[in-house]
């Protein structure tokens, strides 16, 4: 028996299967590429045939695409990323007090006390310091992103890079290259700059105390980890499944709900991988809100609507 967790973000879609002991048995990372429905279907296609529908006894969704995914797959739990990441971290270590999370296009900080989220902050505005910006710089420097952090650890000096803005940071890196600085020193300077930006923006006014977990795709960059430890003076721990913690968190929450309410899962099965869904948008003119509503169509049938504020359209979902 397994619990399914799905985290649909702007850059990646992460899917995990946990067994009844909450151990990770499967984890899938897929680039969303602006097509969340297709990303989920791709993940289900990889799982279909290897697992039976009746082996899934609980399903949870999170991420920016959690609502549409929840309806399509028949989720039992739908939670925001803050809750999902906190639950996953606490499942590993009840003494976690701070979570640093940097994903493809946003970053977060979550503060906990006695197993409860007491404060958090998010940055979804600027790309500086996110995974997509680091990907761009690794391509420009012709260094595989997997080796980016290793270069930073080889540095003898941290070159000062302007890190508040992605555009300025890239311009400053180019300038430093023209001055003859090594790639190792420039990458170390970039890691330090991104951490400074994170702490002065997302972490502004927050008291960072250990134990500290570093989660999200950027946690793979050991150069960023080292820069965080140098800046805050504490050890930063990277969990084994750092890049799918959101998906793990909602899978854990799905198990808790199924057990607490003694209900059967609403999971619709892996065969949705073989169905044709189309997302269409339209602007509702029924009231001054002017909501841009997303309509999901399967064949010629409208199976659901999302993103309205009042529920006029989403209340008509067909289960």
Indicate the CATH class of the largest domain: Alpha Beta
Q: What do we call the CATH topology of the largest domain?
A: Nucleotidyltransferase, domain 5
CATH H level of the largest domain: which superfamily?
A: ATPase, nucleotide binding domain
With strands numbered from the N-terminus, the spatial order across the biggest sheet is 3-2-1-4-5
Gross morphology is globular
Element order: H for helix, E for strand = EEEHEHEHEEEHHHHEHEHEEE
Rg, Cα atoms, Å: 21 Å
* Number of E-type strands: 13
What would CATH call the architecture of the largest domain?
2-Layer Sandwich
**Structural domain count:** 3
SS-derived structural category: alpha/beta
Question: Strand fraction band?
Answer: 15-25%
Structure description:
The chain folds into 3 domains: 110 residues, ATPase, nucleotide binding domain (Nucleotidyltransferase, domain 5, 2-Layer Sandwich), CATH 3.30.420; 146 residues, ATPase, nucleotide binding domain (Nucleotidyltransferase, domain 5, 2-Layer Sandwich); 39 residues, no CATH class. It has 319 residues and is of the alpha/beta class. Helix 3 crosses helix 9. The longest helix is centred in the middle third of the chain and has 19 residues. It is globular. The mean pLDDT is 86.
Keywords:
319 residues, Nucleotidyltransferase, domain 5
Could you outline the blueprint of secondary structure elements for this entry?
Elements: E1 2-8, E2 12-18, E3 24-31, H1 36-47, E4 56-62, H2 66-73, E5 77-78, H3 81-92, E6 98-102, E7 107-113, E8 116-123, H4 131-140, H5 148-153, H6 166-178, H7 183-201, E9 212-215, H8 222-232, E10 236-237, H9 245-261, E11 277-283, E12 292-298, E13 301-306
Parallel strand pairs: 1-4, 4-5, 6-9, 9-10
Antiparallel strand pairs: 1-2, 2-3, 6-7, 7-8, 11-12, 12-13
């Amino acid at each position: 028996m397994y619990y399914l967790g799905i985290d649909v973000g702007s850059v990646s879609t992460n899917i995990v299967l946990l067994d009844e002991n909450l151990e990770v048995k499967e984890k899938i990372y897929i680039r969303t590429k602006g097509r969340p429905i297709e990303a989920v279907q791709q993940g289900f296609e990889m799982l279909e045939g290897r697992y039976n529908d009746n082996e899934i006894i609980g399903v949870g969704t999170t991420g920016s695409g959690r609502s549409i995914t929840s309806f399509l797959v028949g989720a039992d739990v739908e939670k925001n990323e803050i809750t999902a990441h906190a639950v996953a971290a606490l499942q590993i270590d009840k003494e976690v007090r701070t979570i640093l999370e940097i994903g493809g296009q946003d970053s977060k900080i979550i503060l906990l006390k006695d197993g409860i989220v007491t404060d958090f902050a998010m940055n979804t505005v600027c790309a500086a310091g996110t995974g997509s910006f680091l990907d761009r710089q690794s391509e420009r420097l012709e260094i595989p992103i997997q080796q980016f952090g290793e270069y930073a650890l080889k540095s003898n000096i941290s070159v000062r890079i302007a890190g508040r803005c992605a555009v300025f940071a890239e311009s400053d890196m180019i300038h430093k290259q023209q001055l003859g600085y090594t790639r190792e020193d420039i990458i170390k300077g970039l890691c330090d700059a991104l951490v400074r930006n994170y702490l002065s923006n997302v972490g502004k006014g927050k008291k960072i105390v250990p134990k500290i977990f570093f989660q999200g795709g950027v946690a793979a960059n050991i150069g960023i980890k080292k820069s965080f430890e140098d800046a805050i003076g504490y050890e930063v721990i990277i969990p084994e499944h750092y890049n799918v913690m959101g998906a793990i968190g909602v899978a854990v929450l799905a198990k808790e709900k199924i057990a607490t309410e003694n209900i059967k899962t609403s999971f619709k099965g892996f065969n949705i991988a073989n169905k044709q869904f189309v997302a269409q948008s339209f602007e509702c003119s029924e009231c001054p809100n002017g909501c841009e509503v997303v309509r999901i169509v399967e064949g010629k049938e409208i199976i659901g609507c999302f993103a309205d504020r009042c529920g006029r359209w989403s209340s008509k979902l067909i289960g």
